[in-house]
Amino acid sequence: MVSTLKIESSLIGCSECQQLAHNVTGVRLTGGSGNGTGLLQIYYNGEWVSVYSTSTSYFSQMDAKVACRMLGYENTGIAYVFGTGIGYRLFTANSGIRLYNHRFGCHGDEVDFAHCPNSGSWSLQTNPSLGFNYDVAITCGRTQLRLMDGDTAHSGRVEVNINGKWSTICDSSFDDADARVVCDMLGYHDTGIAKSFKGSHFGQGQGDVVLTSLACRGTEMDILNCSPGWGSSCNHRNDAGVNCDSTGIRLVDGPSNTSGRVEVFHGGQWGTICASSYFDQRDVHVICRMLGVNNPNVFGYPYAFYGEGNGVVMLSQLRCDGSESDIAQCPSSEWTVTGHAQTSSCLNHAYDAGVNCDGETQVRLTDGVSEASGRLEILHNGHWGSVSSSGFDNHDLEVVCRMLGFEHTPRAFFKTGGYYGQGFGEVIASGLQCNGGEADIGLCAATWWPKTKPGDHKQDVGINCDGVVPIRLANIGSSSTNGSGRVEVLHNGLYGTVCNNNFDRLDLIVVCRMLGFDNIPRSAYWHPAGTDPVAQGLGEIVVSDLTCNGIEYSIGQCGGRWPAYSSCDHSKDVFVNCNGASEALRLVGGTNKYNGRVEIQHAGNWGTICDSSFDRADAVVICRILGFQQPEQAVAYHSAHFGAANDTVPLTLTDLHCNGLETNLGQCNPTWAPQYCYHRNDVGVDCCPHCQDGSQIVG
Fold first, then answer.
1. How many domains are contained in the chain?
2. Which of 343, 420, 551, 642 is the most exposed place for a label (fewest CB within 10 A)?
3. Do 34 and 56 have their domain in common?
4. Residues in contact with 349: Cβ distance below 8 Å, sequence separation at least 6, in sequence order
5. In this structure, are 111 and 57 located in the same domain?
6. For position 376, what pLDDT does the model report?
7. Which residues sit opposite 50 in a β-bridge?
């Protein structure tokens, strides 16, 4: 088919162009299939002359623009010169005279060759040896493209129509910028998607592999406006493909329609995304946006958190910047439909990506002492699992309490070691690393199931958002007064005791504050239960080795061993006296009412004091407690001076360290329930050694 344009001499306006105008009467394209494509010929001196050019410096793109304008294709925007030595392979050549290596030198805006700077000096040759290898071929029409064997009408193998034959494009350097031009040429502008594929991703084509290395910027109106290469060593194993459509995407096996394992539809099948590396919040935002959820609090999971998928791992190394409307626009590994994504970490579904577009982890507290306390659990795969206390801190606590609807206050605390009981099933998360400002723990770095240690519930974390720890004093004996007794704490539905190990005054202050004593007197004291079985508690010993600093609202905020060290037994159960009342004391076996063996009431029984380290300062305090007006006169006695008690009487304490100013013996830091003392060491005092009966008033 031949395209021809007659040139009227009246178009030539300059006198020096008259000779050329007289000789040049038209241009045409031959050997092609029409549509403005073929070998260029010029009508010169009464015959058609082919243009022979061994380099684009002789016949350039600007010259082609003039030829296309002369042929009536001015509005197509296309004027392309096929590379030298390419035309003869694509089009049927003509024999005869050739215009040999003439430099037209057109600027591109001329209306015909007569107006180009080098319109004269034509060199015609009839030498048959020239052949037709370098006959100039041009196209003035838009390139015809089609997509074949794709998932949708907007995806597939790219095929180009050159001279009436459909051919494929080699994938050498084929990228998303090239795909963008292809999609725009096909009219798929609205999707905003243009994904390139290599390696005959959509199957192998037939015929020639004509084009290679398009090198488009992405803004061109035609692939011929790029810098394509012609002919290559490619075969159909390297056919290029594109997807101009939105990626099919769904979430599977999650607790809602907007959470679950990510699956994408590609190559006629559903496959997963490998999250072994790079997968982050930006990727999750793009995925959720594709699903119609634009939530700033979305988060994702690696390691098949929502279970492992089946079939193909479609892609890996997804590296979105968060602004994309489709994951096809994000850099990634090559998509695959024949095997696993192209990275060694993604050989199976162990790294299948999951997302939570709701931005809400379902959490609860169970087995606590109030609705704001208990073992922290997360709903996963239809079952509740626990959270390990490994790495858990107050920042994590703040986020969890906020998720549960509780205001985070200084009273809140958390406990390790399965304090609210050990859970069942999966350990969903460990090593939480919240900064405290997150709306959900899903936004915090962590180790998530299935990478947690399965079934290891010894470290299940417990949460107390309101700081409430039920506590009571178990009063022993009829003489006990308000504010004194054995300390008991509610735990796991029952009251248990506190071990005396390392218990000190700072711990005492916190315990008394919990019991409602706001102004704890200096005279407040504590002591262990000792060997008296009546004084000892029952059941669990809840905590030992408390390390309060005295300002806490409850012992829950103090360090310690929860549960207590195994070395603790109920002989070490803590007794406290928060109001500082003096102990009940009496003198037995003396010569008058001012002297005798000292006995102290403890746990409802009267017992003696061992004389280890006993001195006058201790005797002064005892006499003050007994109400004598001049206790400083007291005399201390050792070695059962006023007689030893019988074996049924317990030895209650030893090693008093009074300075003489105390108002009760608890302030003297004694050792309770001494193990290596005997009644031959019972102490005695004389509170008024020079008094006769009635000479001193006893208060």
1. 6
2. 551
3. yes
4. 272, 304, 308, 309, 310, 313
5. yes
6. 97
7. 41, 98
What residues make up the domain containing 534? Answer: 471-577
User: Is 695 within a domain?
Assistant: no
Answer whether residue 694 is part of any domain.
Answer: no
Residue 343: its pLDDT value, please? 65
DSSP codes of every residue in 132-146: TTTB-EEE-SPPEEE
pLDDT tens track for 544-574: 999 999 999 999 999 999 888 888 999 999 9
The residue among 430, 464, 498 that closes a domain is: 464
Distances (CA, A) of 236 to 28, 144, 154, 209, 243: 34, 20, 21, 7, 18
Q: What angle do CA 408, 412, 414 make, to 5 degrees?
A: 120
**CB distance 542 to 491 below 8 Å:** yes
Question: Residue 569 corresponds to which tokens in the numbers above?
Answer: 């037994």
Give residue 36's pLDDT. Answer: 87
Q: Do residues 429 and 449 lie in contact, with contact meaning Cβ atoms separated by under 8 Å?
A: yes
Q: Looking at the structure, tell me whether residues 83 and 117 fall in a common domain.
A: yes
Number of alpha helices (DSSP H) and beta strands (DSSP E) in the chain? 8, 42
Rounded Cα gap, residues 642 and 588, in angstroms: 8
CA distances from 254 to 35, 259, 379 (A): 55, 5, 11
Task: Note whether 132 and 10 are same-domain residues.
Answer: yes
Question: Kindly report the CA angle at 318 between 313 and 321, in degrees rounded to 5?
Answer: 155
User: Residue 15 burial by CB count (10 A; 0-12/13-18/19+): exposed, middle or buried?
Assistant: exposed
The verdict on 253 and 237 lying in the same domain is: no
Which residues are within 8 A (CB) of 77 and not within 5 positions of it... i.e. 6 or more apart? 142, 221, 222, 225
**Taking a C-beta distance cutoff of 8 angstroms, is the pair 138, 67 a contact?**
yes
Buried b (16+ CB within 10 A) or exposed e, 84-123: bebbbbbbebbeebbbbbbbbebeeebebbbbbeebeebe
The first and second tokens of residue 347, run together, are 């050989």
Give the CATH number for residue 302. Answer: 3.10.250.10
pLDDT at position 123: 72
Residues of the chain under the 50 pLDDT cut: 1-23, 478-480, 694, 696-699
The answer to whether the beta carbons of residues 51 and 42 sit under 8 Å apart is yes
Last residue in a domain, options 243, 267, 302: 243
Q: What is the C-alpha separation between 297 and 447, in angstroms, rounded? A: 19
CB 325 within 8 A of CB 290: yes
Are residue 181 and residue 232 in the same domain, yes or no? yes
Neighbours of 4 (CB within 10 A): 15
**339 and 383 fall within a common domain:** no
Amino acid 680: pLDDT: 95
In this prediction the pTM is: 0.70
Give the β-pairing of 373-380 and 363-367.
antiparallel
What secondary structure letter does DSSP report for 619? H
> Does 288 reside within a domain?
yes
Distance set, CA 602 to CA 163, 407, 594, 606, 637 (Å): 112, 44, 22, 6, 22
CB 343 within 8 A of CB 391: no
Q: Examine the domain organization and report whether 13 and 114 are in the same domain.
A: yes
Amino acid at 639: S
CB 151 within 8 A of CB 195: no
**C-alpha–C-alpha distance, residues 532 and 652, integer Å:** 9
